[in-house]
Automatic annotation (TrEMBL):
Phylogenetic classification of the source organism: Bacteria, Pseudomonadati, Bacteroidota, Flavobacteriia, Flavobacteriales
VOC domain span: 4-127
Family matches, as Pfam families: Glyoxalase
The protein's name in its UniProt record: VOC family protein
Amino acid sequence: MIKGLYETHVQVSDLNTAIEFYTKVLGLEFAHKDETRPIAFLWIGKNKESMLGLWEQKENLQTRHFAFTADTKDILKYSVEFLKNKDLKPYNFLKNGSNQPMVFAWMPALAIYFNDPDGNQLEFISILEGGGKPELGVLSYEEWLEKTKS
């Protein structure tokens, strides 16, 4: 029955600022702004594959986490530079000062994190080929390649 996740919603402190960030900085496509309440919808990907809802919340803002699917090669070659060029600070899951993508070995998946202007934790993630190796934990891509050589 379930084929995937179609939409998610996050709270933002200023709807217009958030729309600008997600469309102009990250490149999502504007879909609709509800004029009767402070909410906007953005398309993620092509052909209306998925949607992000932005809800303006002036008080008691609750930040969330969600991930954008990306290609492995794009995460490895372009993500850090892309984020820095947009004045965003990339960081890895361990938050150990490195801005290099990390592998979650249990999945396995490659990921890099950054925050939106309200502190929502965003992620670029790509599922890697092969089976998971949970015993390896979270490690650099180079360590992953070395430890999974056949």
